[in-house]
Design a protein that fits this description.
It contains 14 helices and 14 strands. It has 366 residues and is α+β, with helices and mostly antiparallel strands. The protein has a single domain, classed as Jelly Rolls (Sandwich). Strands 3, 4, 5, 6, 7, 8, 9, 10, 11, 12, 13 and 14 form a twelve-stranded antiparallel beta sheet that branches. It has a two-stranded antiparallel sheet with strand order 1-2. α9 packs across α11. The longest helix is centred in the first third of the chain and has 15 residues. About 4% of the residues have low confidence. Bound molecules: fe (ii) ion. Fe (ii) ion binds next to loops.
Amino acid sequence: MGPTSRATKVRLRRRGVDHGDFALAPAGSTPFEAQPIRWDADEPIVLRGIASAGVRQHARAIERALALFEAVRGGASFEAIAARRLARAPFRPAGVTIDLGDTREIEKLFVDALSSAGRAVARDLYAKLSWIAYDERDASLRIRFSFGAEALLDWQKETRRARWSDAFARALFPECRVIDENRDLLDTLERLLGRRIRLSERIIYSNAPGGGATFHHDDEPRQLGVAYTQLEGATAWFALPKRRLAEHVAAGARTAALRRRAGTARKALRALDETSDPLLGKLLNSTPAFSRRLAQAGELYVLRAGDSILLPSHGPDDVCWHAVFALGRRPSLAHSYGVFPLRERPLSATRARGSDRTSARSRDAR
Ligand SMILES: [Fe+2]
């Protein structure tokens, strides 16, 4: 895929903060030869137009997904819409819950997967519809597909139901096939990882104007990375290895209080484990000068329909951090899948210990 011929200009606005206008030089896909080095270095890999044919082929399903998000934004019942869409699919409704402890959550819809004989073969698969932000200025929505008890981390402990959860996502959002049947994308991931993979813990996103995700990472035990594909509209991304983000934070920290906490790259690396810190959060997410610094350093990417971005994850400090800004005047559509080994190896003690330094990640933020 060759570079596009003209420069792109984007305006980044999120949750009431105007970060300004940014001009991007014409950018093509990450060159094939550079991809393995970048993956190993936790750098994002951009694949321009890798899903364009699938986007055209599944245009009807993409429209229906956008319509679903529009309807639930207007207050329609996700459960009712899902029931209609699943009428002929082998999934049986198994209840709806609403987490009163999380004001972002709208509806969590459970189903059981059925065999051809009508027997339940995988229980408690769920689709959780939530607002992305607590901020009312951000009308971005997401639907996460997983299974079992979230609080008990069932999705990490058991993998049998993962493929049923993936199938449930495909039944409700048939445009999953844009990714599932995309041999180029799957081959790229399998070549980079040197193993067969599955794409699970699926999230369907509809980012709304003025919205998006603040800086976070998606490092999880067993998850090797994330593959995000834009199916409609566009998003802008800051994406870079945590260690380089820490260098930017150290250089961009202006106040004495933040310099004490994050004034060196080493301190900033640890400070990034607590992005709930208001001073650090403000620098990362609401400081136009910091966004300019990142853009000037080449950390800004724009994704359009048919483009994918791959975000490598090798551990708590060796992972691609990212922040997303919705572009355009209408809510967009994207699918973000966790990359997992097709066959699991035992979780090593080291990796399990590493996971207690993941407080900064927001499993639901990506
Ligand atoms: Fe993410």
